[in-house]
Amino acid sequence: MSTDELSASATGSAAATGATNNEAYDRDILRRQVELLRAAAATRARLENEIVAERDREVAAAKEEAKGGIAATTAKHQQEIEAAKKEYDAVLKRLQSQGAAEQQKIDEQRKTKAAAIDRACDEQSTKIREDSEFEQGSVKEVFKEKRNDPPKLLARAEKDHALWGSQLDEAIAKAKEFLTKCGVKAGAAAADDSPVPEGDELLLQLKGAHEGAIARTKELLALESSKTIFGGLKKEAAQK
Questions:
Q1: CB of 3 closer than 8 Å to CB of 40
Q2: b/e per residue, 151-178, with b = 16+ CB within 10 A?
Q3: Rounded to whole angstroms, how far apart are CA atoms 111 and 105?
Q4: What pLDDT is recorded for position 133?
Q5: Predicted confidence (pLDDT) at residue 32 exceeds the cutoff of 50
Q6: pLDDT tens digits, 60-101
Q7: Residue 117: which residues within 8 A CB-CB, separation 6 or more?
Q8: What pLDDT does 182 receive?
Q9: CB of 37 closer than 8 Å to CB of 10
Q10: CA–CA distance, 97 with 105 (Å, rounded to integer)
Q11: Most CB within 10 Å of its CB: which of 7, 56, 126, 137?
Q12: Closest Cα to residue 3, out of 53, 52, 42?
């Protein structure tokens, strides 16, 4: 019987007794009511204890289950970590092996290229040395041949000088002939006893002579015959 039922039964009995004899006092009824209240209190205390015990059992079971789940999860994660470490170590070893192989290949290529460069440098140095020795020998041979050149050069210079002198004499003769045709006469020789001008007078005479020579030269060059004469001289000089 629950606590509510006991309370209702006691209340009903008290109401019935009161209705039968409101003024009377019955010890038995009071005793039964007290017993009912005590029984209800004991039942309530028992139920409360059972509830607390059940709660404690459920909490303990939940804790144990949680501990088991945590332990299982931890073990699973630890296994996964160990597997990942092993995989990482394997990958690292493979990469290190590949790196060592690549480094060895690079070292071999470097040695091959260094040997090729050294060989090319040696060949180039040998070629340069041989070319230098050949050029030095050629210079010596040319120097030996050139030691006899000064007399030849002198003879050639004398020949050219004679040719230029003859051309100059010919040009002077043609110029005199040309001046004679143009009516230009040679000036009279100055008297030995004539006084030589000095100072400003000498400067004026030189300036006048210079201007007159320039003007006369322009007149002569403007003539058609002057072009023919001097053009012929240039042509003959070029042919010679």
A1: yes
A2: eeeeeeeeeeeeeeeeeeeebeeeeeeb
A3: 10
A4: 81
A5: yes
A6: 999 999 998 899 999 999 999 999 999 999 999 999 999 999
A7: none
A8: 66
A9: yes
A10: 12
A11: 7
A12: 42
